[in-house]
Amino acid sequence: MKLLAHILCLCLALALAQSQEAHASAVLDRCEGLEMDAVAVNEEGIPYFFKGDHLFKGFHGKAELSNESFAELDDHHHLGHVDAAFRMHYEDSPSDHDHMFFFLDNKVFSYYQHKLEDGYPKDISEVFPGIPDHLDAAVECPKSECDEDSVIFFKGNDIYHYNVKTKTVDDKKFKSMPNCTSAFRFMEHYYCFHGHMFSKFDPKTGEVHGKYPKEARDYFMRCSKFSEESDHVERERCSRVHLDAITSDNAGNMYAFRGHHFLRKDEGNDTLKADTIENAFKELHSEVDAVFSYEDHLYMIKDEHLFVYKVGEPHTHLDGYPKSVKEELGIEGPIDAAFVCEDHHIAHIIKGQDIYDVELKASPRVAGNKRPFSLFKKVDAAMCGPGGVTVIVGNHFYRFESLMVFIVGRALPEQHKVSLELFGCDH
Ligand SMILES: *[C@@H]1O[C@H](CO)[C@@H](O)[C@H](O)[C@H]1NC(C)=O
Ligand SMILES: *[C@@H]1O[C@H](CO)[C@@H](O)[C@H](O)[C@H]1NC(C)=O
Ligand SMILES: *[C@@H]1O[C@H](CO)[C@@H](O)[C@H](O)[C@H]1NC(C)=O
Description:
Elements: H1 2-27, E1 38-41, E2 47-51, E3 54-57, E4 64-65, H2 66-69, E5 84-87, E6 100-104, E7 107-112, E8 115-116, E9 122-123, H3 124-127, E10 137-141, H4 143-146, E11 150-155, E12 158-163, E13 169-172, E14 182-186, E15 189-194, E16 197-201, E17 214-215, H5 216-220, H6 232-238, E18 245-248, E19 254-258, E20 261-265, E21 272-276, H7 277-280, E22 290-294, E23 297-302, E24 305-310, E25 316-317, E26 323-324, H8 325-329, E27 337-340, E28 346-351, E29 354-359, E30 367-372, E31 381-385, E32 388-393, E33 396-400, H9 403-408, E34 416-417, H10 418-422
Antiparallel strand pairs: 1-2, 2-3, 3-4, 5-6, 6-7, 7-8, 7-9, 10-11, 11-12, 12-13, 14-15, 15-16, 16-17, 18-19, 19-20, 20-21, 22-23, 23-24, 24-25, 24-26, 27-28, 28-29, 29-30, 31-32, 32-33, 33-34
């Protein structure tokens, strides 16, 4: 009897340990619809999503332990999670400009370039007098958007506008907004996350305009699968995740690729359509690096491989492909972007900070005329059309009159928003 009880006990303990393990690994998949504890952008504008003792950097990739980037967060005894975080981004406060602040229980940590500032952690009441402990969320709000350089703190349904210069606090209630579990400012917009949903709000009044809440992962995560309810067209138009590739063919049809999906816009029709890459380009499956259009074919590059599709309904994959990029274009894959300008037979290939030309009529083809460019460290996607060259980096795109202007350029031209100005998503 005693032995039986012992075995039973052991089994229970094992089952418990296993379920906890399963739970812990399930928590690490950002595509499962997670509720984040805190969100803030780093000095380079890359969002950091905190969950438990883990951190997701940017819009894709696996979770890391937060203490690998911010070791001292661990020294605090109760670190289970970060309550709130924001990046101070006020040039008028040079001592704190671009510092990241983290809130844990009653403590605040200030980091600059991933190094903890001297004297931190400090009590929240000392650094931000009038702001309570155990916060839910925090977000910076510069004077262009909040009248004064401010930080907005959230706890339950209480909202505190903290004036950075005068250190005064203005209590407000944001009536129409749910309690935020985390909040951040991205591309001049303010987002309150609640559970795995989010709402965009006016930082001064807390008003939410438009159709919210929406699914956080649809906008801020790169996933192979989304929820059943996800609207593919709306999600792909509005996603803040970088594009992998873009091209427009001679007829003026545009294709934009991201992860497992792509958007298509036909010449003379403003209606965007979305589909999976698997469905339209089965052999390629997903996640293309670069695509260019040439003589009614789509040349699609993924890692070391070149796939060629004849444009049509449906697109047909040419026999004998995929072939190696090296063999077909005379350059080692992977590459970052590629495009052909109208009426030319030259594919321009961007790899790192160099651009190469490949004469497509030549045999064998070679990548020559290597030229460095300096405007961007990394290009996500590019295309060429009657208006010149469009270069996409993250959430923005830039137009250059010609390839030469792009290569020799020393100053960035006007910045345009991908979701708004390419795909007409205004939220
Ligand atoms: C980070 O935390 C993990 C798990 O709590 C621990 O095993 C590891 O030693 C910590 N690493 C550092 C650099 O503190
Ligand atoms: C929001 O927070 C308040 C506490 O400040 C709480 O009473 C209320 O139930 C919360 N609302 C929701 C929807 O969780
Ligand atoms: C544009 O495309 C949509 C969706 O395929 C279609 O329903 C519509 O008729 C097209 N409009 C024009 C003007 O071709």
